[in-house]
User: What shape does this take?
Amino acid sequence: MRGGSIAVVGGSIAGCATALAASRGGAGKITVFERADAQLRDRGVGIALHSDRYDELRHAGYVAPEMPWAPLTRRVWSMRDGEADHGRAVGEQPFPFRAYNWGSLWSELRRRVPEEVSYRSGAMVTGVEPDADGVTLRLADGYQEHFDVVIGADGYRSVVREAMFPGVSATYAGYIGWRGTSSDVAGLPSDGYDAHNIVFPGGHCMIYRIPDGVGGHRLNWVLYTTPPQTDGLHPDLRTPTSLPPGRLHAELTAYLRALVADSFPPYWALRVLRTPPETTFIQPIYDLEVPHYTSGRMVLVGDAASVARPHIGGGSVKALQDATALEAAWVTGSSWQEVLEKYDANRCAVGAAMVALARRMGSAQVENTPDWSAMGQPEFDVWWQNQNKGSDRRSGFGGHSIKPDRA
Assistant: This one.
């Protein structure tokens, strides 16, 4: 399927990968509409790619060795144990991941988008109107244009998804992620090659080192817990939202800091509490499934299509894999209908499976945490295996393999 005009709504990691997929698939004209007018590379939070998924995506040409990364080899789950500086380990597991800085990974993908692709920053899409021959986009500034295909890469608040499936939106999982980054990386255990999960009743905090984008490293952490149900403490999180730096309610910040001080081993409490307030924010956790990844001439990729809770470690992987699947469908399809049907058949079931697995992990790690104090390595191993029950051999922690299962 060659030629045609393509619009990609959203210019982040999913959007850049999708523009690259459309170009490789043979699209004639590609326009990316990104609502942010600031540089996305300034987003410094961490993401991680399982080493096996990285190898698959590198082979497909969507990631490369020169993209800055930090190796992770082991994950240690620890709890507070009196005043013991690092607490007590309740379990360890292999952790073959590559840690990235979101902003630097986006920069590398943005650099790979062909020059002939029009990338428009500060372009907010407010209207998506399908017809028999394509889709018309309307922007906040009054601009409008008709395209043969429109691809929604605009995240969990997608305007493209709303046009495809009105009323289908992300559902609040009942808890939040408090995220932060800092330069406090000196003296990390195991020279920073371990990821650390600090556990407590009602949640956990994952901490690991990421590249800072300029040759050094930063400490990246995310704490998952249920916020107190106090009027005025936070907005209605049932409506998809986020709370960036500077908008955190003082009482909520005080609650989270007290939780860290009381529940974390002293070493890790200090590193979280010393994080500058301007580099912390709240990320409410959501679930989202869609009935299909395509409808007419509209397509969804990444979090616009399905949102799996972060515990699965596969959100960015899925977005990049969606792009590879779209490229493959584009190359082999002989019509728009065939391209989109192939893509939907490839990715819709995968997205649903990842959402289901992430829900099980969220239940075990946040909503219904075990008695950590009674847990050692044997108990930890059983607990971990129970979270993965029902997953096939291609799906699991770290995402879904795009290689066929030949066993």
Observations:
- The longest strand covers residues 88-101.
- DSSP finds nine helices and 19 strands in the chain.
- The two ends are 33 Å apart (CA to CA).
